[in-house]
Design a protein that fits this description.
This protein is α/β, with parallel strands linked by helices and 620 residues long. The chain has 25 helices and 18 strands. The chain is flat, with a radius of gyration of 32 Å.
Length: 620
C-alpha cells in the first residue's frame, strides 16, 4: 500500500532522510539499540494521522500503571485503586498520547465483541476468564481461574506476559484504530506466545483503505521469532536501522538473487535472523565453525556481543555469497570467515571482486587490474606447478602428487596445490628447483588475495579448511573427511571447556584468533586499567596527607578523612606503611572481589600517581 514516508533524525543519521512509499500490511523495524527506532515511530505516527489511518502507538513502557507495585518514592499512580468510572475519557486520551495500554481494559469493558474474543483466547489457552467488577466507583479487572474458581485482581496478581497479550489483542481486535505501531511486541512473552501474537497480527493485517476490517502494522522488534518472512514481499517490508546512517531496506535484486532468496526464505531460521539485529554479523560456513569460534572468544572473555557481533552459520560459501550481497543491499556491516577454496571455485569470489573496498585495495597495492584478474593470473601459475608435480618422480612430494591425482576437476587440483604450497613450500622448492619462481609467486599471491578479500570483510583461513588449524586433527590437509569434522570439533570443544588458562588457548589457536578478533571487532573490558585510575587517586591523597605530616602508619592512613579509606577498603588491603628520612613506602594488595590473583603492589612518595599502573600478572 502507498504511504509516503520521509523521516529525518539529523543527530543520528546526518543529512540522510529515510524515504519509503510502498509498505506491506505487516512491517518490521529492526536494528540495534540507539539507532532511532522509537524516535522514528513518533514521526511515523504523525504521518499516519495525516494519512487518516487513525494510528495507535504502544510504547515499550506501555504497562505503566498496570504493574504490581506502583508506589514509587511515596507517589500513587492514577490506577492505584482501579479505573475511575468517571474518567474513562482521560484514560483513553492520556494512554494514546503516552503510548500506554491502560485503556485496553476500558475497551474490553465497553466493547463486548472485543471482550468475547479475548475471553475465548483466555479460556482456551490459559483456563481463565476476565471479569470487570465495579466497586466504589472504580472498575477493577479481575481474572478467574475456570478450574477451581479462584479470582484475583489482574493488576496485582497477574503475570506481565498475560497483561501484555490481553492488552495488545484488545487493540488488535478493536475496530477503532487502522494502524498499530507496537514497540517491542515481544516484551514478557516467551517464543511460542510471540509466534501466537504474530499469527493473530497476520490474521488482522491488510490494507484498511480497501478493507475496513483490516489494519496495517509496524512492529519495532528485537526478536527473531517475530520476523516471519514467508515470501519475498515480507522481506521487502523489513526496515533495518543503523548507528550512523539512515535506515535501509531491500531495493532492486537481480533475478538470480530473487531466485536464491525465494529458496532460502523457508530455511531462514531464528538463528539466521540474528543478522537483522546485529551491527556486525559474522557468517561462517557451518555449525562447527560457529560453535568453535564462539567458544574460543568466550573462553578469552572477548565481549563480541558488546560490539553487536555474532557468528551465524550458513550452508557453505554459496550461501555466504548470497548473504554477502543481501547485507550489501541492506547496508549491514557483515563479515565472513571462509576456507581458502573461495579462491578456486564458486560465485563468492566474483562478489568479492565487485566490492568497492576490494577494488580500491587491489588497484592501490598492485595486486592486479582487479580481484578476479589476480585470481586468473594465479591460476596460470598454479596450472604450471600442478603439471610439474604430477610429472615428478621425487618421493619427497609424493603426498602432494597423490592428492592432485586423486581429483579430476581443475578447481579441485588448484585448491590442493594451494594447500601444498602453503603447508609444504620448502619440500616443493627442494624437489622442483626450476619451479621456485612459480612456488614463491603462488605463495605471495595467495597472501595478497587474502588481504584484498579482507578489505571486503571476507577473512580467508590461512591454512585452508578449519580443521587444518586445529591441533586435534591429524588427517589429510588436502581433504577433510566428513567423519573427522564432528570428532575434531568435539575434541576441541572439550579442550576449551576444560581449560582455564587463556595463554594456553591463545597459543593453541594462534592462527585463528587474529581473524576472529578482526572479524568480530572484539572489545575488552579493561577492569585493571580502571582499577589503576582509582588507585592512582588514592595514592595522590595518601601522598598529600603524608606531605602534611598527617599520616605515618597503617592506622593513621585508615583514619585520615581525606584518604577516604572507608571507600577504598572495598578493593584494597594495606599490608604495611613504613617511613624513613621523610620518605615512605606503602605495600598493598587487591582484594579478591576485584582481582582473583590478589595482586600485591607498592607505592611511595615519589610515585607519579596520575600515571600509576598495576603490575601485570599471569592471565588465567
Amino acid at each position: 500500500m502507498n504511504i509516503p514516508v520521509s523521516i529525518s533524525i539529523p543527530d543520528l543519521w546526518g543529512n540522510q532522510p529515510f524515504i519509503k512509499s510502498e509498505w506491506g500490511s505487516v512491517n518490521y523495524l529492526v536494528g540495534s539499540n540507539g539507532t532511532g527506532k522509537t524516535r522514528f515511530a513518533d514521526q511515523l505516527k504523525s504521518i499516519l494521522v495525516k494519512e487518516k489511518l487513525n494510528p495507535r502507538y504502544l510504547s515499550a513502557e506501555r504497562l505503566a500503571g498496570l504493574e504490581k507495585h506502583q508506589n514509587i518514592m511515596g507517589h500513587n499512580g492514577r490506577l492505584y485503586r482501579g479505573y475511575d468510572i468517571g474518567e474513562y475519557a482521560y484514560f483513553k486520551t492520556e494512554s494514546a498520547a503516552q503510548g500506554l495500554i491502560a485503556d485496553a481494559f476500558v475497551i474490553l469493558r465497553e466493547k463486548l465483541n472485543v471482550r468475547i474474543r479475548i475471553e475465548a483466547f483466555l479460556s482456551s489457552i490459559f483456563g481463565r476468564r476476565i471479569r470487570f467488577a465495579e466497586e466504589g466507583g472504580f472498575l477493577k479487572p479481575k481474572i478467574q481461574k475456570i478450574r477451581g474458581g479462584a479470582e484475583y485482581l489482574m493488576k496485582e496478581s497477574e503475570c506481565h506476559g498475560l497483561k501484555e497479550l490481553i492488552a495488545i489483542l484488545a487493540f488488535l481486535y478493536d475496530d477503532e484504530y487502522k494502524a498499530l505501531i507496537i514497540d517491542e511486541p515481544e516484551l514478557h512473552l516467551h517464543p511460542q506466545f510471540q509466534s501466537f501474537l504474530l499469527a493473530e497480527i497476520r490474521r488482522a493485517a491488510g490494507d484498511p483503505r480497501t478493507n475496513p476490517d483490516a489494519k496495517v502494522f509496524f512492529l519495532i522488534t528485537h526478536s527473531p521469532y517475530l520476523l516471519d518472512f514467508r515470501v519475498l514481499d515480507d522481506l521487502r517490508q523489513c526496515v533495518v536501522f543503523h548507528t550512523a546512517e539512515a535506515p535501509s531496506c531491500i531495493g532492486t535484486l537481480s533475478t538470480q538473487d530473487e531466485y536464491t532468496l525465494k529458496r532460502l526464505l523457508p530455511r531462514l531460521n531464528t538463528h539466521h535472523k540474528q543478522f537483522f539485529f546485529a551491527q556486525r554479523p559474522i557468517f561462517v560456513e557451518g555449525y562447527t565453525d560457529q560453535q568453535l569460534f564462539t567458544l574460543i572468544e568466550d573462553s578469552r572473555a572477548k565481549l563480541i556481543g558488546a560490539t553487536g557481533a555474532c557468528f551465524i552459520d550458513v550452508n557453505g560459501k554459496d550461501e555466504q555469497d548470497f548473504f554477502f550481497r543481501l547485507c550489501q543491499n541492506l547496508k549491514i556491516s557483515a563479515q565472513f570467515i571462509s576456507d581458502l577454496d573461495v579462491i578456486t571455485r564458486g560465485n563468492f569470489r566474483n562478489s568479492i571482486s565487485e566490492e568497492a573496498r576490494c577494488k580500491k585495495f587491489t588497484s592501490e597495492q598492485g595486486i592486479g587490474p582487479d580481484f578476479m584478474e589476480a585470481i586468473r593470473e594465479l591460476n596460470v601459475r598454479m596450472d604450471t606447478l600442478i603439471l610439474a608435480v604430477e610429472s615428478s618422480s621425487d618421493s619427497m612430494i609424493e603426498e602432494i602428487k597423490t592428492a592432485l591425482q586423486g581429483v579430476s576437476e581443475r578447481e579441485d587440483k588448484r585448491y590442493r596445490i594451494i594447500i601444498g604450497t602453503i603447508h609444504k613450500r620448502d619440500l616443493l622448492a627442494q624437489s622442483l628447483p626450476d619451479k621456485v619462481g612459480e612456488i614463491d609467486y603462488i605463495y605471495a599471491k595467495i597472501k595478497q588475495i587474502a588481504e584484498a578479500s579482507r578489505e571486503a570483510g571476507v577473512f580467508l583461513l590461512p591454512k585452508g579448511a578449519l580443521e587444518n588449524h586445529l591441533a586435534s586433527y591429524t588427517g589429510s590437509i588436502f581433504k577433510v573427511p566428513d567423519r573427522a569434522k564432528a570428532s575434531t570439533f568435539e575434541s576441541e570443544r572439550d579442550f576449551i571447556l576444560s581449560n582455564s588458562d587463556i595463554t594456553v588457548t591463545e597459543t593453541r589457536y594462534a592462527d585463528l584468533i587474529p581473524i576472529l578478533d578482526a572479524a568480530s571487532g572484539v572489545c575488552d573490558v579493561n577492569l585493571r586499567q580502571h582499577l589503576s585510575y582509582a588507585i592512582g587517586i588514592f595514592i595522590g591523597s595518601v601522598q598529600v596527607a603524608y606531605e602534611r605530616r598527617e599520616i605515618d602508619s597503617v592506622e593513621s592512613l585508615k583514619q585520615h578523612a581525606s584518604v577516604d579509606w572507608n571507600t577504598y577498603n572495598r578493593i584494597l588491603d594495606v599490608l604495611s606503611f613504613n617511613t624513613s628520612d621523610r620518605k615512605f613506602i606503602c605495600c598493598m594488595k587487591l582484594k579478591k572481589i576485584v582481582d582473583a590473583t590478589q595482586t600485591e603492589f607498592e607505592f611511595s612518595d615519589d610515585t607519579v600517581h596520575s600515571k600509576f599502573s598495576l603490575p601485570i600478572t599471569k592471565r588465567n
